[in-house]
Amino acid sequence: MSRAVSYHATVLLVEDNETIRNAFAILLEESGYAVLQAGSGAEALRIAGENTPDLILMDLGLPDMNGLEVTRRLKSASETQAIPVVALTGHALETDHAACLAAGCTAYLTKPIDTAQLLEQIPILLDVGA
Questions:
Q1: Class for domain 9-129, per CATH?
Q2: In the chain, which stretches have pLDDT less than 50?
């Protein structure tokens, strides 16, 4: 028996590791979010521009461009500048946090991601973008 899920927001998940991306997509979908997926910075820019998601979860270590550069480009485009971007990174230094905020990220989560914390933060982050 399939469970009906009512989507209340769309999240663009930008992660180059397909296994991690798929696992997070399942978690988000089961939590009621519609999920768009991108495996590169260029793909993220294209999808965000075409779909205007409510929130973007941005891996910083992408194969084609740094996630901070993708965020700067999103924040410089009128159609995507208001979308909250959450940086997902394995780096936990204070300078990394400052760089994320300077690039336009709304929040910063270090890997491994605490999924319970992420799911608690998403509604708050969606309010920031509203």
A1: alpha beta
A2: 1-5
User: Quick one: DSSP state of residue 54?
Assistant: S
**What pTM did the predictor assign?**
0.90
Which amino acid is located at 41 in the chain? G
Q: Distances in Å between the alpha carbon of 10 and those of 28, 89, 101? A: 10, 21, 22
Per DSSP, helices labelled H in 60-114 are 67-76, 94-103
CA–CA dist 130, 54 (Å, integer) = 8
Residue 114 Cα distances to 39, 47, 93, 125, 130, angstroms? 21, 26, 18, 16, 24
Q: Tell me whether residue 87 is exposed, middle or buried, using C-beta atoms within 10 angstroms of its C-beta: 0 to 12, 13 to 18, 19 or more.
A: buried
